[in-house]
């Protein structure tokens, strides 16, 4: 177990290192200039000589490897640097935005489960019948509708026409409903299809036939016996979904004015606030790796064969 | 059996749907009274219980008054001088000011002002605030050019590093706010930047970065007490969502509405839209090193191919003014000349006089070089910016000029790194402080922040030198207009339009109009019926 954990840790460090290198290089190679971006955003004016002095003072004129090296050295010492725009600590900024993203993640997971599980189960139980066709249509809709369009549609219906829910913002359960519905509905199709396919595959197995022969009710077979095996691919996919939710949804957060990590990322990229973007990417990397690790643990709990093979999936 | 299963399915589906609807209804039930309109009126008309919600388009991550506009916009901080509705500099925290010599400005502060933490505003407190601002904000330090500050009672004396006749206008900018350094020392910088302490009519009660600021009335405000008790300012960068929030009456004042939604808004009797001329100008910069546009006649021809009326009517849906120069004609120093109309015939004559002839492919050419231009388009935050080059490209194509459009995020960066361009789009606030000197210096002196193309006009430089030595305001306006004449003759830029600011206002909002400068949003006079 200890070997497995240390192996995972080494993998994580290597992945994060390459992630940070790629992001740093891409950000630096992309056109744009933080000094100009900040000045344009605030309609400030600095002469070109003053702009050069500002770049010099912030170390933006140094070779890229030197900039990366000094950033990495600080990160190793748990110093994530300071924002170029607000001069605040990057770690503080990330931690300030994280609770809103976690809140939205929980809401989206609830919506995802409320939509995906009943539809997936009903689609498998009533294969090629009305419930199956309905769930496939819903899954197709969810997969086809862009999240920004769905968000605007939900705002139009529930906030503007019905005036039930707020158009934007955060802080109460009501504020959470529309962004959660948007994210949950867009993510649900994949789970509906996986659950349906997994259940159909499992329901054709011999041990299920044996259970039926023993007179166990169909719902009990479905929920107690078939579901366990059908959940395996879902648990594997959930690692990626959870990772992407925890790193914030750029589009949904921006539209609903949700103060999470996604909206922070888009603002920081627009202003070329390199330290915040680097910190965000590193944080995302950790979230993804942790979520994947959790999904592996979940799979091992569900499937004894994984545990017996030392953590490797069959 | 199948029928039974089907019945079970529909029964269970109905239950799931009902549960979902109940969940939504439960969520909504609590807030149903909240959304008929965001402004609420309390038991009396003295301000108790009155609140308002404002939505702005630019999310902010800090309330640091020296590094953003939001503290002045929110009525938390104030500046020594301010702009009135005619864009004239008027007293605010300072009662009077005068120039002792070209390098010395003396301001006398009002004697009856206290910060929101109870400390008195005297010259020493203001000095500490300016020292913090200069240390923390490069643009502020660059604009003020302060060599030293002296404080004596209520008299604050600034010495500048060079003659600075426009010094008072630079103090109008929100980043020149006067804040309580004593409060910052007591709370720490991180906490202070989330709840800064100024002298304004409202105090910060809460701040969620990127989302909202909540404010409460400052009960010991030095001027007339605010009419409202509470104000919420929310941020959302999406124009469609802001517009829907306004249409749902979940906000009373909404900035930067989507122009295409105005017809729907106008049908609602409770909602109004103010279309205010802004201090921003969209324009083209011509590359002085380009083979083609280095010739004045080609620049003049291109200027005649800009259909400003069509841009105003079709792209801006009527919410803009054709530009005849960098400054709006309504400003005291703006040019009164009519904006250039679309004139393809005039453009062709100019091309002919410049030695161009029609080539076999219908493209104008000179010395075997076809008139093919590269236009760097600014994607920017204004949705109309990428559309303007398309319209010009279309008009130019009709007369035989080929324009290739290259879209970039920051034209200044492209211009700095490349020489293979002929025209570029730009958009700046050209007179944010009630004076034209700052823009003229930035755009027409070598090394200026708005002059990445290195435009240099000898004749203009002489006028700018005189302008930079002139304190008398009418004389400054006259010199600015003289500079505009030269700019119009030499045409290093083609000024296109001044876009309007579209602000949605619920009819219950009283005593308030949006200003062109967008500095003063929450005021002590702002009220609801």
From TrEMBL, chain A:
The keyword Nucleotide-binding does not apply. It comes from the Bacteria. Its main location: membrane. It is found in: Cell membrane. GO terms for cellular component: plasma membrane. The chain crosses the membrane at residues 12-30, 100-124, 136-160, 172-192, 229-251, 280-302. It is a multi-pass membrane protein. Signal peptide: none annotated. The keyword Transmembrane helix applies. GO terms for molecular function: nickel cation transmembrane transporter activity. SUPFAM superfamilies: MetI-like. Coiled coil: none annotated. Keywords: Cell membrane, Ion transport, Membrane, Nickel, Nickel transport, Transmembrane, Transmembrane helix, Transport. Residues 98-295 form the ABC transmembrane type-1 domain. PANTHER family: DIPEPTIDE TRANSPORT SYSTEM PERMEASE PROTEIN DPPB-RELATED. The complex is composed of two ATP-binding proteins (NikD and NikE), two transmembrane proteins (NikB and NikC) and a solute-binding protein (NikA). Belongs to the binding-protein-dependent transport system permease family. OppBC subfamily. This is Nickel import system permease protein NikB.
From TrEMBL, chain B:
GO terms for molecular function: peptide transmembrane transporter activity. The keyword Transport applies. One of its GO terms (biological process) is peptide transport. Pfam families: SBP_bac_5. It comes from the Bacteria. Residues 1-28 form the signal peptide. GO terms for cellular component: ATP-binding cassette (ABC) transporter complex; periplasmic space. The keyword Membrane does not apply. Residues 88-449 form the Solute-binding protein family domain. Keywords: Signal, Transport. Belongs to the bacterial solute-binding protein 5 family. NCBIfam families: Opp5A_nikA. This is Peptide ABC transporter substrate-binding protein.
């Amino acid at each position: 177990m200890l070997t497995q954990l240390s192996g995972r840790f080494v993998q994580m460090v290597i992945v994060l290192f390459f992630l940070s290198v790629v992001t740093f290089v891409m950000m630096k190679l992309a056109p744009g200039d933080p000094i100009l971006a900040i000045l344009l955003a605030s309609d400030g004016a600095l002469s070109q000589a003053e702009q050069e002095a500002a770049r010099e003072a912030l170390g933006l004129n140094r070779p890229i490897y030197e900039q990366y090296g000094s950033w990495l050295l600080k990160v190793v010492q748990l110093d994530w640097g300071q924002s170029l725009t607000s001069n605040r600590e990057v770690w503080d900024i990330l931690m300030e935005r994280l609770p809103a993203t976690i809140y939205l993640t929980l809401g989206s997971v609830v919506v995802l489960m409320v939509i995906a599980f009943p539809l997936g189960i009903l689609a498998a139980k009533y294969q090629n019948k009305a419930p199956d066709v309905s769930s496939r249509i819903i899954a197709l809709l969810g997969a086809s509708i862009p999240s920004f369009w769905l968000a605007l549609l939900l705002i139009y219906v529930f906030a503007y026409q019905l005036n039930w829910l707020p158009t934007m913002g955060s802080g109460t359960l009501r504020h959470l409903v529309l962004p959660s519905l948007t994210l949950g509905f867009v993510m649900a199709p994949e789970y509906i299809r996986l659950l349906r396919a997994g259940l159909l595959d499992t329901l054709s197995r011999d041990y299920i036939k044996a259970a039926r022969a023993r007179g166990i009710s169909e719902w009990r077979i479905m929920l107690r016996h078939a579901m366990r095996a059908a959940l395996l691919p879902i648990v594997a996919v959930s690692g990626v979904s959870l990772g992407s939710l925890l790193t914030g949804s750029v589009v949904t957060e921006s539209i609903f004015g949700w103060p999470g990590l996604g909206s922070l990322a888009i603002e920081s990229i627009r202003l070329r606030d390199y330290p915040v973007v680097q910190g965000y990417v590193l944080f995302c990397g950790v979230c993804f790796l942790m979520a994947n690790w959790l999904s592996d643990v979940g799979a091992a709990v569900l499937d004894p064969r994984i545990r017996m093979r030392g953590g490797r999936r069959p | 059996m199948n029928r039974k299963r089907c019945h079970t399915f529909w029964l269970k589906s109905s239950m799931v749907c009902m549960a979902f609807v109940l969940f939504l209804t439960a969520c909504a039930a609590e807030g149903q009274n909240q959304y008929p309109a965001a402004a609420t009126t309390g038991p009396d008309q003295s301000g108790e219980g009155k609140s308002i919600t404002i939505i702005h388009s630019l999310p902010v991550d800090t309330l640091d008054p020296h590094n953003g506009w939001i503290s002045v916009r929110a009525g938390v901080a104030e500046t020594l001088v301010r702009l009135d509705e005619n864009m004239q500099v008027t007293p605010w925290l300072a009662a009077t000011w005068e120039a002792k010599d070209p390098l010395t400005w003396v301001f006398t502060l009002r004697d009856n002002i206290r910060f929101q933490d109870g400390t008195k505003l005297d010259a020493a407190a203001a000095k500490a605030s300016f020292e913090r601002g200069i240390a923390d904000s490069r643009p502020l330090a660059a604009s003020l050019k302060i060599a030293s500050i002296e404080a004596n009672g209520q008299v604050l004396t600034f010495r500048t590093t060079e003659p600075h006749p426009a010094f008072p206008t630079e103090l109008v900018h929100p980043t020149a706010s006067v804040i309580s350094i004593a409060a910052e020392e007591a709370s720490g910088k991180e906490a202070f930047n989330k709840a800064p302490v100024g002298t304004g009519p409202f105090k910060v009660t809460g701040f969620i970065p990127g989302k909202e600021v909540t404010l409460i009335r400052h009960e010991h405000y030095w001027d007339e007490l605010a009419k409202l008790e509470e104000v919420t300012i929310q941020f959302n960068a999406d124009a469609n969502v802001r517009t829907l929030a306004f249409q749902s009456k979940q906000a009373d004042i909404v900035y930067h509405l989507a122009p295409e939604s105005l017809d729907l808004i106008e049908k609602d009797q409770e909602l109004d839209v103010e279309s205010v001329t802004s201090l921003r100008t969209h324009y083209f910069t011509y590359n002085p090193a380009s083979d083609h546009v280095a010739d004045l006649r080609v620049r003049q021809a291109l200027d005649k191919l800009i259909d400003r009326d069509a841009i105003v009517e079709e792209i801006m849906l009527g919410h803009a003014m054709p530009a005849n120069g960098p400054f709006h004609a309504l400003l005291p120093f703006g040019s009164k000349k009519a904006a250039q109309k679309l004139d393809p015939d005039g453009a062709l004559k100019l091309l002919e006089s410049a030695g161009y002839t029609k080539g076999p492919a219908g493209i104008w050419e000179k010395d075997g070089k076809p008139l093919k231009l590269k236009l760097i388009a600014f994607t920017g935050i204004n949705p109309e910016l990428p559309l303007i080059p398309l319209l010009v490209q279309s008009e130019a194509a009709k007369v035989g000029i080929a324009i290739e459009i290259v879209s970039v995020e920051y034209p200044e960066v492209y211009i700095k790194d490349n020489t293979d361009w002929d025209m570029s789009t730009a958009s700046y606030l050209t007179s944010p402080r009630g004076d034209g000197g700052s823009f003229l210096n930035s755009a027409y002196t070598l090394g200026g922040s708005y002059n990445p193309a290195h435009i240099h006009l000898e004749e203009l430089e002489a006028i700018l030198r005189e302008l930079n030595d002139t304190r008398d305001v009418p004389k400054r306006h006259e010199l600015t207009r003289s500079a505009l004449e030269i700019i119009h003759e030499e045409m290093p830029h083609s000024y296109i339009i001044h876009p309007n600011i579209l602000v949605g206002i619920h009819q219950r909002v009283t005593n308030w109009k949006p200003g062109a400068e967008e500095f003063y949003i929450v005021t002590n006079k702002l009220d609801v019926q």
